[in-house]
Amino acid sequence: MAEQLETEVKFALEEGGELPPLDGLVRAGAVHEYLQRAVYYDTLDLLLARHAITLRRRTGGSDDGWHLKLPEGGSARREVHADLDEAPGHRRVPGELVDAVATALGDAWPAGAEGALVPVSFLTTRRLETQLLADDGSVAALLSDDRVTALPAGLSMREAEVELVDGDESLLEVIEERFAEHDVVRSDSPSKLLWSLGDRPERAEAGEGPGGSAPAAVVVHQYLRLQAATLLGCADDLRADAEDAVHKARVAVRRLRSALRTFRRLFHRDVTDALRDELSWFADVLSVPRDAEVMRAHLASRLEALPDELVRGRVVERVRRAVDARHDAGHAALVETLDSQRYLRLVDALLDVLGDTPWRGRAHREARDVLPKLISKAARRAVRERDAAREAEGGQRLHLLHEYRKRAKAVRYAHEAVAPAFGDDAAVAAEAWEEVTDALGLVQDSVVAAQWLADFAAAADTVGESGSSYLSVGS
């Protein structure tokens, strides 16, 4: 990790305009052309942006790597660099930079999901860089003519940047005077990131979401960031088996998978389908300890309600021990998974999709014109499953009710995703679908409990104990 003091000024340029000549001020040296790709990271509420801190991962230029820029006053910023291979994965922020951000923010730095650093903007810059030479031939400054595209907002702009190398600030002053003579003035935005975010930092601080006129990509990306931050922010709690950590992680994974499916017409699916498959794998890992947590509470209430005459032998103790054993085994497997290369690749793939989302189709049209139609399709799929369940019987009906629950959850999550943009109507709809999923969840819990108790009864029979008490718990 290395540090330097960066001093630069930026100017707004018209798309078809010309850079002012610098004859008589400096000599032009070598010219280089780059295609730079930068992913900018921040917290969910854009805490870094609101404190004029910039954190990015950039490739394609003369300074590939991780760059953390901290304000130092005036035109100067302290820049901390880390090589690309210093990250714990190609998209995860190096620990030294996380520590530097935390130190800079002090008490304002949050923990958990609120402090998770996730991609918030992706910029592609076509840069024409010219060396500005001093009288002795050294590079005094670099003049860059940048054409920038920002996603997910779908914005574009042109900007000139003059950054000192071996020159002093007097050079910036005379260049700024020359530019002003040609009606080229400083950029209003202090950074490309803030330009790409628009009013999002202020809205985030106020707890407001994007409006329905925002691009669909912005609304969906915000939801994906929230779920990714929740998942990444609870890693330590998962290892420590903290209360509700597995539940939070599994719900975040489900919401990610659901959003990538419900809004799949907005993505190139060759990328997002592969991510959904890996999220499904991790959801299965989380399900083992989580199912045990659910069954622990479910069976405890049933055991307490069971008449004493039906409790034979050490049924209560054995049920609790069996459930705890399943939980402990599941948690041990989860911790092992968190240390596995497959999980690390999953995190990278998730951050890849957030940092360089494969948008397509109508993603950059207004959210209110695009997203309701996709949610309606998800709702129709759920209704079809409900109607099929009503016509079925026995085991087939239970299976279809489970499928209906999964479809209903997708509709609920979709309404939650758009509620920050669409307001009360979406929030009310999400609550209505949550009531459906909660009711169906009770059915599913009873089905799973019956399966577990049947296993416990069979195990009791093999050691000469009566399995009838186990079956009574589920009756």
Automatic annotation (TrEMBL):
| Gene3D superfamilies per record | CHAD domain, Hypothetical Protein Pfu-838710-001
- Domain CYTH residue range list: 4-200
Q: Provide an example Pfam family for this protein.
A: CYTH
InterPro entries associated with the record: CHAD_dom, CHAD_dom_sf, CYTH-like_dom_sf, CYTH_domain
Q: What PROSITE patterns is this protein classified in?
A: CHAD (PS51708), CYTH (PS51707)
PANTHER family in the cross-refs:
CHAD DOMAIN-CONTAINING PROTEIN, SLR1444 PROTEIN
From the Swiss-Prot or TrEMBL record, give the protein name.
CYTH and CHAD domain-containing protein
